[in-house]
Amino acid sequence: MKSGKNRAAVSLLAAGMLLVSGSALATNGYFTHGVGTVTKGMAGTGVASKEDMGAISTVTNPALGVFMSDQWQAGLALFSPIRSYTASESQLNGSLIDLGNGSFLPSFTITPGKVDSSSDYFFIPYVGKNWSLSNGANITAAFYGRGGMNTDWDSSNASATSYFCGGDPQQAEPPATGPGPYCAGKAGVDLSQAFLAVNYSAMAGDNFAWGIGPVFAIQMFEANGVGTFAPVTKTFAASGGTTLPTHLTNNGHDTSIGWGFAGGIWWGMSDTVSFGLAYQSKMSMGEFDDYSDLFAQAGGFDIPSTIQGGLSFMATPAVRINVDVQYIAYGDVDSIANPMAYLTSCPTLPLGGTDLESCLGGESGAGFGWEDMTVYKFGIEWARDAANTWRFGYSFGDQPIQAADVLFNVLAPGVMEQHVTFGLTHKTQGDGIWDFSFMWAPENSVTGPSMFDPTQSLELTMYQLEFEAAYRF
């Protein structure tokens, strides 16, 4: 009876994950610092460790499934990203920029001051199961949330009122005003992602393991308060300024699905040293049709590829040390990587641009300007006794946002660079195992000029806390 109740609980948890997985995560760019409670306690390391970390460890390296116990595993994280932006004083205050050739460029000035994002607490679950086969191989299934970004700049905050020159540049009309950072009401985005990885792993000799399998994904996205950018969409430019875009903002949640694959290897180099390498391909996702005027390639938003490699070695019989390096290829996805500077080629800006495809929604449309990210990770695992194992981790990687793109990244301020983590595993007197992890990401920021008001600077700031607990049975 107890086993039946446990499986029912896991089924209910998995069903609810589609509603909450991945929301608001922004740690290494918009990827989490690790997947699974044990791995998170060591800053996301463990790609080369054959210690039993539960079924979810196959997300870090599919080859590790062959070392995992035949168990269920379920976890839940409470994640808190604290975000804000600060706008400096401006010399333009929404007035027109005289280009000196008889034309004017509308400026866009955000009201000076600091604004905090609401929506500071999120629950993110995961569930995994490992099955041992008669031939010594394993099949593992893991359902988890990873990635995502969420901001909520509330228009009820008086300091979130901005100035925007909405007049005719030829007549030099005065600037219009409105609420929200983009003068178009309450602004923000919500990206939620959930993944299902099904993996086969096996040994090839005594010191080599491999694993491979498909990864399926579903993601939901919503954007609000970005109607100000309607004049720089492909739809508007292609119509000669007669058709306003209807798939730019405030269209509720849209959903896309897609898939990729993941594979990995583990090599026991000696009795105390092992090497691991894992790769997850770029995931081809369906378009966000309701936001085809916002994202490049008419709503394209694929999921970047990642590769992670590392060493694991036993410093003493009770102490394991992991050193990993992870590479996230944000540059593979135009909607994420294309800089805002591409907008200067859009014909609706009075800068001589003639390229429709550089407008929002075009084949090479402007995006968030994120660069690829390399993350260096270090983790320690200390088996204090037969029942308790303590963990510590630290990771560092340069945040992916460029200073020139801060205006658009008010929506997605993924500026974190460091993570300090702690973890604990406690084995009960029965067959159960409790895992715990805590993460603190120290405050970091990026500052740059506002693209449509070069006299104003914007600073994006964030720090994070996360607590996660999991149970294996």
Task: Describe the secondary structure blueprint for this structure.
Blueprint: H1 2-20, H2 37-40, E1 72-87, E2 96-98, E3 104-106, E4 108-110, E5 113-116, E6 122-132, E7 138-145, E8 149-150, E9 162-164, E10 176-178, E11 188-203, E12 208-224, H3 234-238, E13 254-268, E14 273-280, E15 284-285, H4 296-299, E16 306-316, E17 319-328, H5 334-337, E18 373-383, E19 388-396, H6 406-409, E20 418-427, E21 433-450, E22 453-472
Antiparallel strand pairs: 1-5, 1-6, 1-22, 2-3, 4-9, 6-7, 7-11, 8-11, 9-10, 11-12, 12-13, 13-14, 13-15, 14-16, 16-17, 17-18, 18-19, 19-20, 20-21, 21-22
Can you describe what's shown?
- By secondary structure, the protein is mostly beta strands.
- It has helices at 2-20, 37-40, 234-238, 296-299, 334-337, 406-409, and strands spanning 72-87, 96-98, 104-106, 108-110, 113-116, 122-132, 138-145, 149-150, 162-164, 176-178, 188-203, 208-224, 254-268, 273-280, 284-285, 306-316, 319-328, 373-383, 388-396, 418-427, 433-450, 453-472.
- Strand 11 (188-203) and strand 12 (208-224) form a beta hairpin.
- The chain is elongated and about 75 Å long.
- The two termini are 14 Å apart.
- The relative contact order is 0.18.
- Mean pLDDT is 86; it is low at 5-22, 156-160 and 165-175.
